[in-house]
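Hypothesis: this fold can be encoded by more than one sequence.
Test: take the structure tokens below, design a sequence, compare later.
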């Protein structure tokens, strides 16, 4: 009996490093990004529909504000691309149960697209390799290939050329979430504006960070977190500086704006330190909400 539906669980990510090169002629920037998948998950369920019904999308969960429930959703775009690449009719309903913050620099849309690729491969028995999935994922955006495998990885080029990072240990995170997202293109434009007249070199992997990950030295990882988009995010959203200050005042090992923001990620020593920082941030009144997570975790995975 053919399978009628499948649910795929997929994590959020934080950037431990996001180094941004000069603006290229095509408007893009070369990046070096060190990603870590963390334990905040969306669940994407695909249910086969009637023939010729096409692809429909619905969004549920606590993080739904501003997420398109139509062809503009990255999951729907993933389904359209899969249909084209494999010459199949996809008639399915995609239900996205969201816990990853929207427009928060944590790749929620990319995660849903990766989950959709895995779900379609499973439902339609395509037997795709992870490399074939990654090739399709790269066409949907630079974060999508990473969300397939999760773990800790280095992204180069536009962030989509991935190599696994040698990383040991578990890292504890406290995430300060904003009620309003930031537009990634707007953050890059502000980054370019702030850099006017400066000489910007091509980005390199931060060797001290990589050594710290290999040694499972959370304190050293915290000291070497870097995000070249942070000044731009803080320029567009000055309140982020307050959040960063509060976290560091209360003992975080390191802090940075994740990706293009506005989520602020704090690395802490252990679960207990995470609880203390969560209480401090919550009572400070400078953040919308606070969640705790750990990483690295695996990428998109069929759970039922």
């Amino acid at each position: 009996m053919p399978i009628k539906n499948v649910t795929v669980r997929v994590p959020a990510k934080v950037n431990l490093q996001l180094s941004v090169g000069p603006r290229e002629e095509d408007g893009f920037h070369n990046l070096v990004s060190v990603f870590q998948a963390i334990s905040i998950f969306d669940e994407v369920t695909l249910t086969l529909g009637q023939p010729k019904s096409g692809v429909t999308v619905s969004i549920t969960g606590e993080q739904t504000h501003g997420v398109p429930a139509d062809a503009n959703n990255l999951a729907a775009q993933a389904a359209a691309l899969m249909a084209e690449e494999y010459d199949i009719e996809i008639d399915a309903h995609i239900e996205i149960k969201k816990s990853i913050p929207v427009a928060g620099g944590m790749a929620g849309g990319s995660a849903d697209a990766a989950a959709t690729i895995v779900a379609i491969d499973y439902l339609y028995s395509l037997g795709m390799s992870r490399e074939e999935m990654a090739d399709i994922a790269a066409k949907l955006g630079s974060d999508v290939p990473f969300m397939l495998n999760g773990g800790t990885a280095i992204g180069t080029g536009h962030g989509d050329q991935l190599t696994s990072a040698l990383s040991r240990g578990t890292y504890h995170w406290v995430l300060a979430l904003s009620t309003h997202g930031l537009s990634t293109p707007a953050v890059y434009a502000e980054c370019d504006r702030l850099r006017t007249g400066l000489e910007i070199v091509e980005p390199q992997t931060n060797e001290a960070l990589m050594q710290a990950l290999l040694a499972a030295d959370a304190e050293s990882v915290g000291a070497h977190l870097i995000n070249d988009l942070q000044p731009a995010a803080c320029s567009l959203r000055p309140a982020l500086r307050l959040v960063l200050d509060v976290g560091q005042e209360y003992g975080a090992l390191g802090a940075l704006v994740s990706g293009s923001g506005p989520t602020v990620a704090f690395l802490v020593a252990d679960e207990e330190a995470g609880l203390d920082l969560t209480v401090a941030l919550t009572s400070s009144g400078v953040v919308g909400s606070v969640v705790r997570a750990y990483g690295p975790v695996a990428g998109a995975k069929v759970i039922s």
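The radius of gyration is 19 Å. DSSP finds ten helices and twelve strands in the chain.
Hypothesis status: open.
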